[in-house]
Design goal:
By secondary structure, the protein is mainly alpha-helical. The chain has 16 helices and two strands. Helix 10 packs across helix 12.
């Protein structure tokens, strides 16, 4: 057998070296696209948003209910987070952020279901797509968990799971696509930096539908049903405040001035909301309450969410202060005038706060007021119209789908526990456990 000529060996060696080099080049190009600082910040923000739900929201809500239902709230938060996570993997992420839909204005399609067509090297902007998926997953988890407040202490656990799973698919994911996934509202120019519409309007509308369709708790409003543990609620509220930095600041998807601005606006909005609510109570009743300042803080956080990355610090103070006032009187209206048993005030705080914050974003994001959301030529009145259209369309869709889901679930597995189970408390009747040893 003749030896291989030298020039052939050199050619083969060159080809071999080229193919060894290609993966290295690809890897280098991929890593150069990913920004390490942005990735590190979003990993932190993702952890903060999950921390808002578990244990933040779980403890905040658990302290507000009666002691016989404390564990039912906690297990609902954990279960909803788990269910929403699997739904987000299966199809929610694809519906929200996919690009395989027939009509991209309304639906993202199923091209990214089960993370098909997405790998560890996939990039969204300057961050790994896996991380973007995870960050958005935490939003998809906390939003249905917020709705718990509308049916707390009286909904079957099986109904909670079915409702939450279907709600993520049919309400949350499509609305997310409309606003953040390049859908029709995004094309119109609606401004929602971190979830004023996507999170708070949807949760508020669904909560009030749940409260109306399930009906009031036994004894409401004649029987007093105060929170059983304000220290527990205060601990959860503190976690929500800290976690909200990731919620709003992380929505910049980068470690930049927009994220810093959002965090500052978030803090100032929460502070102004807490103080304005506290002052109203102080004047009306002669004493400020812990529950009042905590609820005002959450109202400020929810209301500043839509505009957090668009408005100036002074505007954030104005928005938060308005939030505390409007949400306070909305709470009185819902409970004392309309007698709606939205157990944990999701609708008057998150829902009304989301609406007010989204509308105020159309004003305070103007460059004339130090904002950065749109150009002067666009005009405040035009932007207000776009913001209002976004609120109304999302609220109508959310109300329609929520009503349909509750009717279907009610006709199949049933919605409400029996009177005996409600009187005993869901901790024992649904889960066979007690939160406290008597």
């Amino acid at each position: 057998m003749k030896p291989i000529p030298r020039f052939m060996r050199n050619i083969c060696a060159s080809i071999h070296f080229f193919f060894l080099l290609v993966p290295s080049i690809s890897s280098a190009q991929s890593s150069s696209v990913v920004n390490s600082a942005d990735t590190a910040w979003l990993m932190t923000a993702t952890s903060l948003v999950l921390f808002m739900t578990l244990p933040g929201l779980a403890l905040f809500y658990a302290g507000l209910v009666r002691s016989k239902n404390v564990l039912s709230i906690i297990i609902q938060c954990f279960a909803i987070t788990s269910v929403a996570s699997i739904i987000w993997l299966a199809c929610g992420y694809s519906i929200a952020f996919g690009d395989g839909g027939v009509n991209q204005s309304w639906f993202g399609g199923f091209d990214k279901s089960w993370l098909s067509n997405v790998s560890a090297s996939s990039v969204t902007g300057q961050i790994p797509e896996y991380l973007f998926f995870m960050f958005q997953l935490t939003f998809a988890s906390i939003t249905p968990a917020l709705v718990i407040g509308g049916f707390a202490e009286r909904m079957k656990f099986s109904a909670v799971l079915w409702f939450s799973a279907l709600w993520v698919i049919l309400v949350y994911a499509p609305v997310t696509h409309w606003v953040w996934g390049g859908g029709w509202l995004a094309k119109l120019g609606v401004m929602d930096f971190a979830g004023g519409i996507v999170v708070h309007v949807t949760a508020g509308v669904s909560a009030i539908l749940c409260a109306l369709i399930l009906g009031r708790r036994r004894g409401f409003p004649n029987v007093s049903m105060p929170p059983h543990s304000l220290p527990l609620t205060a601990a959860g509220a503190g976690m929500l405040w800290v976690g909200w930095y990731g919620f709003n600041g992380g929505s910049a998807l980068a470690a930049n001035s927009s994220a810093a601005s959002a965090i500052l606006a978030t803090h100032l909005g929460a502070s102004a909301g807490a103080l304005s609510w506290m002052i109203i109570e102080w004047f009306r009743y002669g004493k400020p309450s812990v529950l009042g300042i905590l609820t005002g803080m959450v109202a400020g956080l929810g209301t500043i969410t839509a505009g957090s990355g668009f408005v100036s610090p002074m505007s954030a103070v104005c928005i938060g202060g308005i939030a505390g006032i409007v949400c306070y009187f909305a709470t009185q209206l819902f409970k004392q005038v309309w007698r709606i048993d939205d157990s944990l005030d999701v609708s008057p705080v998150h829902g009304v706060g989301g609406v007010v914050g989204t509308l105020l974003t159309g004003i305070f994001a103007s460059p004339l007021l130090g904002g950065s959301g749109f150009t002067v030529s666009t005009g405040i009145f035009h932007q207000l119209g776009v913001q209002a259209l976004g609120i109304i369309s999302v609220a109508l869709w959310c109300a329609l789908v929520t009503w349909a889901l509750l009717k279907v679930i009610g006709a199949t597995v049933g919605l409400r526990v029996s009177e005996e189970q409600e009187a005993e408390g869901l901790d024992l009747s649904s889960h066979g456990e007690r939160g406290y040893i008597e």
